[in-house]
Specification:
hydrolase; alpha+beta; manganese; three-stranded mixed sheet
Length: about 280
């Protein structure tokens, strides 16, 4: 795996920028060809990961921590234990996951009660745009619509942190969720110029062929999903959530992300290690 040259700034922040909390949701569905994941390609020119293919997600809004959100399923304490964070942050992350999924894909992980889920989200199109515009909070939307957040429809998957070299950093909790019956994921978001459902192996093959850009968290998530046969397998997976922060190292004239466990990881701490190549000087 290599990084586009423009992914690394000319000057590194010193000290590193503190990462903002964020949530990403991997939507999956079963097909005759196997499990597929929903992917969006971010608009070229966006400040973070422009042109890259990712899963729906975004930063936590302060109102996502609203304790008035109607909620059913695992409580904040359960999520806090899985993500090793405080209960208020865990609650905000789950709410951000549901909100961002609705905003970016039109999929709404909520229902009239604890035993049902919305089957057609078109009546909520105006509310969806209002959430994007931050006209009101997720709690207000759910209350006005008579819906409850279905925390039992998502599962914890991973925790990735943007490398310290980046000027925009996120501490992102990854979730996995099954596409609810009757709903469809769309591309009606200003942040994406293309959306698609892909089998994980096919998405990785397109990246290898240079047809898609993938960041390490997306690539690794697709790789893990590729080992599973069905949505039920993904939802039942018992994941050990560890905080993972890629680092960057020069490999000749190429920028290469390295992960914990890679022999180069210890010597790629918070800068481009000059020992990794002699054709470019560290900046």
């Amino acid at each position: 795996m290599v990084l586009p040259a423009n992914m690394v700034p000319a000057e590194f922040p010193d000290p590193p920028v503190p990462p903002k909390d964020a949530a990403t949701v991997v939507l999956v569905r079963d097909t005759a060809a196997g499990l597929e994941a929903f992917l969006i390609r971010r608009v070229v020119g966006m400040a973070f990961a422009g042109g890259m293919t990712v899963f729906p997600g975004g930063g936590v809004d302060r109102r996502d921590a609203d304790a008035d959100v109607a909620w059913t399923g695992p409580d904040a304490a359960w999520w806090a234990s899985r993500f090793s964070c405080t209960e208020p942050l865990a609650r905000a992350l789950v709410c951000a996951a549901v909100r961002e999924t609705f905003e970016e894909s039109g999929v709404l992980l909520a229902g009239p009660d604890a035993d049902s889920v919305v089957s057609d989200t078109r009546p909520y199109a105006t509310a969806r745009q209002a959430l994007v515009d931050r006209a009101f909070s997720l709690a207000q939307f759910l209350a006005d619509a008579g819906l409850v957040l279905r925390a039992d429809l998502i599962r914890p998957w991973a925790n990735w942190v943007t490398p310290e070299e980046e000027p925009r950093r996120y501490d992102t909790k990854f979730f996995v969720a099954a596409l609810p019956d009757g709903q469809r994921a769309d591309g009606a978001t200003s942040e994406a110029d293309h959306v698609e459902w892909r089998r994980p192996a096919d998405a990785i093959a397109m990246w290898q062929a240079g047809e898609r850009g993938l960041l390490p968290p997306t690539w690794m998530t697709l790789s893990d999903l590729g080992e599973l046969a069905t949505v039920a397998d993904a939802m039942a997976a018992e994941r050990v959530i560890e905080r993972v922060m890629p680092k960057v190292i020069r490999d000749g004239s190429t920028l290469r992300p390295v992960l914990p466990g890679d022999p180069d990881y210890p010597r790629a701490a918070a800068h481009l290690d000059p020992r990794a190549g002699d054709t470019l000087e560290p900046r």
